[in-house]
Every structure is written in C-alpha cells, then in structure tokens.
C-alpha cells in the first residue's frame, strides 16, 4: 500500500508566492494523474479561495480538525476547478494557536489527523502561514519534506537561514525524517542583476536542492485566484502556468529517481 508524499510549502517571509505555488502545484500534479490533497494551514484562507471554495461558507475547517472537533472526512471538500481535495481554512484558524497551547502533543495534531488519509493520496501539500508559528510547526511535523518558495532578493537569503534553522530543530526534536525537498525561485526576472546574483548564490550553496524550474513574474498568476481557479487550469498557456506544470513534472521525475540527500 503506497502512502502519500507530504510536502510543507513554507517560508516565514510573506509575499513570496507560497499560496500560488501550493495551489498551482496541486492542480499541476492532478493534471499529471496524481491524487492530491491540499491542506490550507493559513488563517488567511487564500489557498481555499484560490481553489474556488468560499472560506466564509466553510462549516468544518482545519481548525476543527486540529482541535479534534471534526474528522478529516467531514472537513474534506472537493476543488472542482483544481480537481484535487482540500482541507479549507478561514479566520477561525487563528484561534487555534492559543487553544492548542494547552493540548497534549500539540505539535503533532495535523500529522495525526492526516494519518488516516495517507493511503488515499499520492501527494499532500500543506500551505503554511507566513510565520514560524505553532501552525507552521504542525505543518513541518506532518511533512516528509519542505518546499521553499523564495524571491531572489537580498532579504530572502536572511529569512532562508532562519527557516533552515527551524527545519533543523524540528528534525532534531520532532520529525527526524524531515528534509528540504527543494528551493523554488519565484517572481523571477532575468533582467534584474540582483535576481541573477542571488539565484547563483542559491545554486552554489544548495546545489541540486534548487529546482531547475524558474517561476517568472506573471500577471495571470495574480489574476487567477479572483476567478476561483488555479492558473494552470484558468490559463494553461500563460508563462506562469507553464512554469508550475514544469515544476510538477520536475517533482515527479525527482520522486522516481534518487531524492537529494537531506540538508
């Protein structure tokens, strides 16, 4: 019986294309014939809305799942536009941070909740909030690997070292199997000298941990969520959508071959 490969899509820096990556990768993997579950672990609920689900009407959410108030089967919805399954989120999830503090094994609540569904999927993608919070820790504990979207700019490198430090601490104390799946360069502009320099620095430091796929700045990626559909569905021919289709293919190719060693 196969079990799902679980990716936490994480970066504590906001505005790096994290949710865009999670939604479009979920749809891209689905188009490639994979069974995918997307977990919206961000109280902003952007991945929920981008999947065509109105977060305001979601009766059962990840909040209820983490606190043991609902079963996964009750929370799970279908993204008709993306073709994958979704565990939705809304502002209610912000309260889970406080409520989880007094709960036993609070860092493992998501991992335990997802265990029953692992055989139902090939990939589970977790859209983590833009912070190194208890919600993000839940995502990292539940995951096999971390996919890190990042812009090629100076401050991104500083934030990356913080995130890598957190990943190492989680691996040491809570999840020994956790590895870095790869770094994804987003909003990439080859005309920008700094973009090129930072990109080269990433490649020299992280080697084959850096995905070959480059996601360009693309207005269609920004427009797609307002139509409640991933860009790879809404405008498959756009450069942004093509990049995420290529990323899905690259991830599938890596999973068939030897995975890079843990960082």
Name the descriptors.
263 residues; alpha/beta; eight-stranded mixed β-sheet; 12 helices; 17% strand
Task: Describe the model.
The protein is α/β, with parallel strands linked by helices. It has one domain: 3-Layer(aba) Sandwich (Rossmann fold). The chain has helices at residues 18-31, 46-50, 62-66, 72-75, 96-100, 109-114, 134-142, 154-173, 193-206, 219-223, 231-234, 239-256, and strands at residues 5-9, 36-40, 77-78, 85-87, 123-127, 145-151, 179-188, 210-216. Helix 1 (18-31) packs across helix 12. The radius of gyration is 17 Å and the shape is globular.
List the helices and strands and how they pair.
Elements: E1 5-9, H1 18-31, E2 36-40, H2 46-50, H3 62-66, H4 72-75, E3 77-78, E4 85-87, H5 96-100, H6 109-114, E5 123-127, H7 134-142, E6 145-151, H8 154-173, E7 179-188, H9 193-206, E8 210-216, H10 219-223, H11 231-234, H12 239-256
Parallel strand pairs: 1-5, 1-6, 2-4, 2-5, 6-7, 7-8
Antiparallel strand pairs: 3-4
Helix pairs in contact: 1-12
Give a nutshell description of this structure.
With 263 residues, this protein is of the alpha/beta class. Helix content is 41%, strand content 17%. Residues 258-263 have low confidence and may be disordered.
């Amino acid at each position: 019986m196969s079990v799902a490969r679980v990716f936490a899509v994480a970066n504590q820096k906001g505005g790096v294309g994290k949710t865009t990556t999670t939604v479009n990768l979920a749809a891209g993997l689905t188009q490639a014939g994979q069974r995918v579950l997307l977990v919206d672990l961000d109280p902003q609920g952007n991945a929920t809305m981008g999947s065509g689900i109105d977060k305001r009407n979601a009766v059962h959410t990840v909040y209820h799942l983490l606190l043991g108030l609902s079963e996964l089967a009750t929370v799970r919805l279908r993204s008709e536009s993306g073709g994958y399954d979704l565990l939705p989120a809304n502002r209610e999830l912000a309260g889970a941070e406080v409520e989880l503090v007094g709960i036993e094994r609070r860092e493992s609540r998501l991992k335990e909740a997802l265990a029953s569904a692992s055989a139902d999927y090939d990939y589970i993608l977790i859209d983590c909030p833009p912070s190194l919070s208890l919600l993000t820790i839940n995502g990292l504990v539940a995951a096999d690997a971390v996919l890190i979207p990042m812009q090629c700019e100076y401050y991104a490198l500083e934030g990356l070292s913080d995130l890598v430090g957190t990943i190492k601490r989680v691996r040491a104390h809570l999840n020994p199997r956790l590895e870095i799946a790869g770094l994804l360069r987003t909003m990439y502009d080859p005309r920008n000298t700094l973009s090129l320099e930072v990109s080269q620095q990433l490649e020299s430091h992280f080697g084959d941990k850096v995905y070959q796929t480059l996601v360009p700045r693309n207005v269609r990626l920004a427009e797609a969520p307002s139509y409640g559909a991933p860009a790879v569905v809404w405008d498959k021919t756009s450069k942004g959508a093509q990049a995420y289709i290529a990323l899905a293919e690259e991830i599938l190719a890596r999973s068939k071959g030897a995975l890079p060693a843990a960082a």
